[in-house]
Amino acid sequence: MPSNVFSFDNTYARDLEGMYVPWKAAEVAEPKLIKLNHALADELGLDAEALDSPEGAQIFSGKKLPEGTATIAQAYAGHQFGGFSPQLGDGRALLLGEVIDKHGKRRDIAFKGSGRTPFSRGGDGKAALGPVLREYIIGEAMHALGIPTTRALAAVTTGETVRRERNLPGAVLTRVAASHIRVGTFEFVTARREDATLRKLADYVIARHYPELKSQVDPYLGLLRAVCERQAELIARWMNVGFIHGVMNTDNMTLSGETIDYGPCAFMDHYNPATVFSSIDEQGRYAYANQPPIANWNLARLAEALLPLLAAEQNDDQERAVQKAMEILEAFQPRYEHYWLRGMRLKLGLTRDEAEDLALAQDFLKGMEGQGVDFTQAFRRLADAAEAADASREGWLRKLYADDSALNGWLPRWRARINGEGVAPVRRAQAMRALNPVYIPRNDRVEEALAAAVDLGDYAPFERLLTVLQQPFAEKMEFAAYTEPATASESAGYQTFCGT
Ligand code: AMP
Ligand code: MG
């Protein structure tokens, strides 16, 4: 195995002294590579063939890293369920370094589950196989749906047992991210009143993720605005596919605008804005419909963390800085709505913007509530309905509703709206199918894949599910079994657990 398959750069370690601790992965007993992401390896310019090997297992478990690899544990803080923890950090993760991908983009490569670090607190630093596979599956699904996300490059089992509610196989995930800088990274520095480091960190983020801001007036205010913009778009994308992150703590929100930290996340099946899957989210803080206001709340924490820089930028006029930051935070909701409605228009097959569209979109969702309607299927059935200029193909959609009378008022409104656009019905249906997924990582399918792998060492369901999710928009006969939601009673009690 040539040790030069990776050539890591380490700008984070070089530029941000004090924001990390050099640290090594724990020794693992018997690493076995269970999955290498060939497409992603190619994108990173890595030799996928060479890495898909026992040597790859050594690398992706941290047992034998390429020479010169300087692994670090990153420091960060964060608001968890509203409460501030001044020091979280990589308690079971390590950053290996950065590579430049085929598009010239700098990407972090990191381990998750690689053992205790100085930030582990009470944790064992390990990851269990189930959560590693969940993160692999959901990240790839999100990527295929076109939603910015970190991705899994590899998953290995360690040959060790980790203790959770029961003994489970240990695993390490190798994660690729635009960067691992979080809202909590900024909170960490500001809580320690390290203004010089704060400036370095902000400059680093601007250079890496928002280089266009460098030459603008008030670049730090620009940074806050740009992050708000990316997050508004990201959360809108989540909402448009029914994704529930589950643990939107500020340490799980990136500055890059990628989705990160797939713990108790899951996709909503039956439409209900109050849906919560995470077992620890007893108050429903991170429920489906709360995600936009929670993102806004997290961004307010970012604004607070940036305040020393914002004030300096306004000639030390703190009040003026606060005022300007508030304006940006107040713009989040309308920006979010803009992106959400843009997505909903496309989902509904609308090509023009009209004033009534917001109400049309909201009313479609309102009509689903309490009807046991699968969110994903509803939009596919609506595409079926769009295939005819009249009501002749609306039956499949109606069948999803316990009581379809909610559609009696809505469908004619929608039809009047689309018929006024002059797009051929078949073309419209095609366009709708091209962006309303038929395949999402359905909860029962995810559980099935995890259980087979964890309990039986059988990775076939995991592999099959990954294959299905790779092309979420093109319906295929052989994948018919992946389109159905779990039954209402199954999904009523569905719970997910943090990967800790
Ligand atoms: P999460 O909610 O999974 O993003 O994790 C929140 C914090 O807990 C981060 O600082 C993690 O590094 C840490 N953490 C989570 N699980 C473990 C674990 N098994 N061992 C040590 N630290 C952990
Ligand atoms: Mg986290």
Can you characterise this structure?
- The chain has 500 residues and is an alpha+beta fold.
- The chain has three domains: 11-180, no CATH class; 184-339, no CATH class; 364-500, no CATH class.
- The chain is built from 19 helices and twelve strands.
- The protein has helices at residues 11-15, 38-43, 48-51, 54-60, 129-144, 183-191, 195-209, 219-241, 291-313, 318-330, 332-348, 357-368, 375-386, 395-399, 406-419, 425-433, 443-456, 460-470, 488-492; strands at 20-22, 32-36, 72-74, 78-80, 83-85, 93-100, 106-112, 127-128, 151-163, 167-177, 243-244, 266-267.
- Strands 2, 6, 7, 8, 9 and 10 form a six-stranded antiparallel β-sheet that branches. A two-stranded antiparallel ribbon has the order 1-3.
- A hairpin with a 2-residue loop joins strand 4 (78-80) and strand 5 (83-85).
- The longest helix is centred in the middle third of the chain and has 23 residues, at 219-241.
- The protein is globular, with a radius of gyration of 23 Å.
- The structure holds adenosine monophosphate and magnesium ion.
- Residues 88-93, 119-120, 123-126, 247, 251-252, 261, 263, 498-500 line the site of adenosine monophosphate.
